[in-house]
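Reposting from the mailing list since nobody answered there.

I have sequence plus structure tokens for a pair of proteins and want to know whether others read the tokens the same way I do. The first protein:
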Amino acid sequence: MRVRRYILPRSFQDAAITSFLMIIIPFIYYFEIFVVLPHFYILWSPAFIFHLCTGTFILWNLCSNIMAIILCDNSIKGLFLPSVLGHDWKFCSVCESITPPRSWHCDICNVCILKRDHHCKFTSCCIGHFNHRYFYVFVVYMFVATLYASIYNFYFIYDVVHFDTLGSLLKLVFPIAALFVFFTYKEVYLAATLLTVFGAMFTGVLLVFHSKLIMRNKTTHEKHYSKYNRGRIENMKDVFGERWYLVWLSPLIESKLPQDGVNWITSESNKSK
């Protein structure tokens, strides 16, 4: 894996959103493990330990995949590229270089990215050929984590917070605003529950959207093209590597990508063989 030399956010918006993610993940983990779970299970009972291990495994995959996303270098820097335009190759006037098919210039990263999918505000970097795997696995675990937490949070809030007055109902509708006005434990619980619900909804939509793209071997820039679609298994290998069935366990599992991000096998070239 090529490692990025400069990993700090390049814009205030990126820095703010990435910082929020880095803070909210451990906060929700602490809230679920040490506030919500003890409400249902005796501390250090077999059931509590089971959920503790499950939650910690999810946390490990969230944090480690985020780091892998950030550290991966998807740029064309350091690559030996031809000086003559080939088929589907183009010239980038900003990088002053001929760039490969499926690569696009990112105005925020200020460089062309191999198989650029999009610039991710949550990690302050682009999602491209080498970190696409980590991004998708991160979204999967984020959806599982927020959905998992939301189920317990609903029962927890129902037992702890009583909505028997107009004021309490308004706190349910506007928990973040109530947090700034009242700032009690109950408002913090409501805000955390709301965040997990929104997180499950947002990552659920992302998961469906990116799953469809991966199954058709497309990026967000190629929604109307399917020339790289070579069947679901080959498409998955292009993102997750040869050991695509194991990458869900940990980003530390090596899974070599079959293509280099510069030269691409298309469905037409497969038919001509």
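The second protein, same order (residues first, tokens after):
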Amino acid sequence: MNKLKRNDFMHVSVMLFGLFFGAGNLIFPPLLGNQAGTSMWIAFLGFAITAIVFPVVGAIVVGKTEGLTNLASRVGPIFALVFTTAIYISIGPGMGIPRAGSVPFEMAIAPYLPESFSVTLARLIYTFVFFAIAMWVCLNPSKLVVRVGKYLTPSLLLLITLMFIRVILLPSNVGQPVGDYANAPLVKGFLSGYETMDAIAALNFGFVVAVSIKRFGVKDKKVVTKYTIKSGLIAGSLLTLVYAMLSLIGMRTSGLLVGAKNGVVILTANVREAFGEFGLVLLAGIFTLACLTTCIGLITSGGEYFYTLFKEKLSYRAWVYIWTIFSFLMANFGLNKLLAISVPMLLIIYPVALLLIVMGISHDLFKYEKLSYLFSAVVAVVLPVINVMATSFKVRIPFLTNFEESLPLADKGLSWLLPTLGVLVVAYLVEKLINSEKLKV
């Protein structure tokens, strides 16, 4: 069979949206709306580039190349092994999965516990149930599309829509943009989307989507790619709609909640105004479902990767148990220590992830060769390493740190951007020159 039923296709598309949409995706847009105020739509445009376009394109690229390893192998086999493993660990049990279990508890439940009730015990109970449900879904990947795409994610979308409709009908008080949103709302929105780290998650989830499509009996590679692209576009459309709703919620009270530190404060104030105390229950449900769907995607993709990496010596189910149990323990006892290592790792691998997405989607057009991938990837890794050493570990490398800090956009953490593009262009032109000389001979 080389065709998906319409319902199956929609479930795959909705599943991809659910895999992307975690706690960070829920709290960044309201904060953007709050701080951008009357400039919200300009800021939202920049946010959409890094929080929607890059993740969707990344999922399509990985689905098209049949896995992140194949995409990264264009740089080199050693790079592919190190880079791919670093991504799966850092965004998986190294940070993404434990945080997915603890964040909804800390944001939507812990603040409202009775003073007499132990927060530690409540977190233990909550995360145990959370990870038990995630493990149950992940142990049978053939039912992943149905459980996430048909039930969990539609429930999440329904709750968010209900919250938006009720909140947006209330009287609003829109304020003026503050901070960087007042000076450069487009750039600030772009950088805010960059912080969601969804482009890295996309490099995991694209493979999950491609495998899910194949499980419906679609075997032809071109057809799988076609459905992956269409699923990505629908997931991107849903992300755009939901982000816009959340940003508008933040914008409507931007004149009242001046100086709000995060999106949780903004959402809590709005749902309380709209629903009373029931709004807190609604918000807890939204946070839990958002994190659960993302957690399921991370466990599934990681389990599949390590099952293949270790030549099937451990079963996929065994890897699901390992990742889930480890993440449960870290969510309760070691998340802060884990974040101290994983966050710098993400800051290092994120730029080269963006580079591979751009090169992957344009590969058929430009026909990049090894030189282009290798040299541009080196720059996209080395400059962030220098930056992270100085900012996270307070280690300054003679000459190199000063050089990195002198580059354009270094103050925004984007010192790698222009040099990487420059090296890519030069390497590409050199490749074309060498090939043309060979043809003459």
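Reply #1 (J.P.):
I read it the same way you do. The chain has two domains: 6-333, 355-441.
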